[in-house]
Amino acid sequence: MEKSIRLRPVNLGPLGTTVRQGANGIVYLSSPHPLASYPRAITERLAHWANVAPDRVLLGERGPDGEWRELRFGEAWRRVCRIAQGLLDRGLSVDRPVVILSEGGIEHALLGFAAMHVGIPYAPISPAYSLVSTDFGKLKFALELLNPGLVFAADGMRFARAIAEVLPPETELVVAQNPPRGRAATGFSELERDVTTPVAAKHAAVGPDTIAKFLFTSGSTGMPKAVITTQRMLCSNQQMILQTLPFLGDAPPKFVEWAPWHHVAAGNQQFGLAVYNGGSYYIDDGKPMPGLIEKTVRNLRDIAPTFYFNVPKGYEELLPYLRRDRGLRENFFSNLKAMLYAGAGMSQHVWQGLDEVARETSGERILIMTGLGSTETAPSATFGHWETGQSGVVGIPVAGVEIKLVPNGGKLEARFRGPSITPGYWRQQEITRAAFDEEGFYKMGDALKFADPADPQKGLIFDGRVSEDFKMATATWVDVGGLRMRLILKGAPLVQDVVITGHDRDYVGALIFPVMSECRELCTGLAKDAPAAQVLGHPAVCRHFQKVLVDLAAEESGSSRRIARALLLEAPPSIDAGEITDKGSINQRAVLGCRAALVEELYSESPGSRVLIALQTSQAH
Q1: Architecture in CATH for domain 68-206
Q2: What is the pLDDT of residues 400-433, one digit of tens each?
Q3: Beta bridge partners of 173
Q4: Around Cβ 470, how many Cβ atoms within 10 Å?
Q5: Are 373 and 421 spatial neighbours (Cβ–Cβ below 8 Å)?
Q6: Are the C-beta atoms of 577 and 512 separated by less than 8 Å?
Q7: Which of 18, 394, 590, 612 could in theory staple to 578 by disulfide, Cβ–Cβ 3.0 to 4.6 A?
Q8: Strands (DSSP E) along 348-387, which ranges?
Q9: Per-domain residue ranges for the chain?
Q10: pTM
């Protein structure tokens, strides 16, 4: 019965992968389809659509009154040119770029495109560096690295604390509203100037290697890195995606998305798709969490997307609303060509739920797909742009990108080369050199495997990180090494070692190898030879570890830095099973594999009494 329900017709690019065997088990993959020509600068597409469809909505966002505030292509182009003049008047350059502290919005878009139009890089910074951080360490590092000549915050008062602590007094601050007290600030409208000849001259000098923006990585292992993003990267990757998903160019696409613009998926790819293909991008002011998902639902009742992007957690939160709200799902699926997820793996039950509600609503199946990429790859390097029938297939190389699969620790480490790959990290030459191999392939750190080893044409599957760090279901990176060490230190002397859990989960957990001799010291009245289960279940031991976890969680903010649940392991790590090396170090991957049942117990909806709970799951977010 289900096979008779057809896939909604959608224009997809051709399939095919060229496979070449190298030495030492290395495999090279590429697309047999050549990459077509692409613009030298992304604002050429903005100018094109301003001429072809000046009254079409480019960008929409909710205003203070709750109504949609819309920016059309013609107006956007005129204002971009005027703001570009204002930036040139200030003498901004690659050595004095623009920094944006606030989230995506109309002013954010105008300022970013104005800077890029005349060869001035800009850097959208994670708002969390200003609004969540207590020491502003990452923000301070980013500003010292970039030395910006202008910093923009849409709402000055909202960012006042960070501005006062970090922004040098000589750096110009621009705000759209609410300038912070005690600090000189320029109104956003003051950036616009009458356009003079230098704007066209500076734009003519912009080429494929001109730096368009700096995008900071998450900084899961120390301070963030500023990824150099060139015009070539932006434009070639947009053309790669268009050849993979030609339906984006058949009719103006429409997007409704919450994902932040300081991330490459939204800031480069998704909003870029609207500009490149003459589409409309509506900013969803919601998020996939209680209290904010309702805003997403409201926005999707208003706007019917043609291509929908979200992280797996976002789809999981949206799914119950789609199931019970017929008006919502009818609007959502009315014009939808495909759904894209990225940032983490999607649980198969979420995949199946989306498929079921689509079939019930429209009588058709809607393509669900993912790909693989990173900030350094602009981002899209692969796409699974066919009916894979399962979650996790990241697909095949897009046109113009080569993949090199290198055997590494029992996995195939993925490396990438092509016009959409970054030249490196800004003012961090040693890190740049380490990021590329001898053939110029970028070493992403992800592992891939063939969906069918006998048939490479069936695509690749994400196989985890070569390193230990992982992403949660919210697409947030977890610094495994740092979190592990904090728990060991906090739990000393009762903690021998720790394995961090949470890959594609909603919260972080821990498997703790305790020091049994120290634990026994807490067990008053218990026999000295009592079995491990009794020792670890003793109230005094449980209270001790409970306090360690609660205290550790209280010291941190953010779901990736707080351990919500933990299990004390009765059996020590096994050297035979590869859980521990002969040098005494824990093999995280092996422990997780050997003790998969315990991980499932840790994340059970009804956890047993031996699961220590430091945070309720709602707090863990």
Answers
A1: 3-Layer(aba) Sandwich (3.40)
A2: 999 999 998 778 999 999 999 999 999 999 999 9
A3: 151
A4: 24
A5: no
A6: no
A7: 590
A8: 367-369, 371-373, 380-383
A9: 1-36+370-466, 68-206, 245-369, 470-620
A10: 0.80
